[in-house]
């Protein structure tokens, strides 16, 4: 990420878009607002934004469908979804299909800025950060959000990737469910412990299918989960 971060805002509420653009301008960020999903599609391809704020309910498209498609095409793209629908199941769905964060309307402007700032910080690792984690038989690219086992790409959801990244960056150390919840979602929403258990179980199964005979993630009774390097 060089120069000013460029943020694509896809929302059919013109008044809200104007407010958010002014808010972000004060932070030194460039904003490219569009009102439809179709314009958003073109902007993602031509503008190459650093982050996208995407509304779920658009006049010509479903935000969830756009999120899923953009995440598959642009793995490193930062994606925050916001909507008037604040139901926890909607939030879980948004995170499941690839969103980095989820903010319900109406939102506090300072919270929006804080979440975007945190997302941009993750999009631009510092020199001391390790973007590629390598283990015997497993490679995790934190920038591309790509996991390879025996040189084969392992298809993970956004949540599963974040769980693996958090665990793999602390090999041999048990991470609590609360810590893993925080790794999955940086905002105020936190998945339930049992949701994390289900996600870890899915992650573990996918890794075992890709690396037969290797258990990369193990349960530590009373503590949480640990990544076991080989």
UniProtKB/TrEMBL annotation:
Q: Which PANTHER family match?
A: DNA-BINDING DUAL TRANSCRIPTIONAL REGULATOR OMPR, REGULATOR OF RPOS
Record-level GO cellular component terms: cytosol; protein-DNA complex
Extract the Pfam families matched here.
Response_reg (PF00072), Trans_reg_C (PF00486)
**Secretion signal, residue range per the UniProt entry:** none
Entry annotated with the keyword Transcription regulation: yes
Q: Which GO MF terms does the UniProt record name?
A: phosphorelay response regulator activity; transcription cis-regulatory region binding
Q: Which UniProt keywords apply?
A: DNA-binding, Phosphoprotein, Transcription, Transcription regulation, Two-component regulatory system
Q: Which GO terms describe its biological process?
A: regulation of DNA-templated transcription
Q: What is this protein called?
A: Two-component system response regulator
InterPro entries (alphabetical): CheY-like_superfamily, OmpR/PhoB-type_DNA-bd, Sig_transdc_resp-reg_C-effctor, Sig_transdc_resp-reg_receiver, WalR-like, WH-like_DNA-bd_sf
The answer on whether this UniProt entry bears the keyword Transferase reads: no
Annotated source species: Piscinibacter gummiphilus
């Amino acid at each position: 990420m060089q120069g000013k971060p460029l943020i694509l805002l896809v929302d059919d509420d013109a008044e809200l878009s104007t407010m958010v653009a002014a808010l972000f301008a004060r932070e030194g960020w460039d904003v490219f607002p569009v009102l439809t999903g179709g314009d958003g599609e073109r902007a993602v391809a031509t503008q190459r934004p650093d982050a996208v704020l995407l509304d779920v309910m658009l006049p010509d498209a479903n935000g969830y469908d756009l999120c899923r498609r953009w995440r598959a095409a642009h793995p490193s793209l930062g994606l925050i979804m916001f909507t008037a629908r604040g139901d926890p199941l909607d939030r879980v769905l948004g995170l499941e299909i690839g969103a980095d964060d989820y903010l319900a309307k109406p939102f506090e402007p300072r919270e929006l800025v804080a979440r975007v700032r945190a997302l941009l910080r993750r999009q631009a690792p510092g020199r001391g950060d390790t973007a590629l984690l390598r283990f015997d038989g497993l490679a995790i690219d934190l920038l591309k959000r790509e996991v390879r086992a025996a040189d084969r790409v392992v298809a993970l959801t956004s949540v599963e990737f974040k769980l693996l990244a958090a665990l793999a960056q602390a090999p041999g150390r048990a991470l609590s469910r609360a810590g893993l919840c925080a790794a999955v979602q940086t905002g105020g929403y936190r998945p339930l412990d049992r949701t994390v258990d289900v996600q870890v179980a899915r992650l573990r199964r996918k890794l075992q299918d890709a690396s037969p005979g290797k258990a990369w993630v193990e349960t530590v009774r009373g503590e949480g989960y640990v990544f076991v390097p080989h």
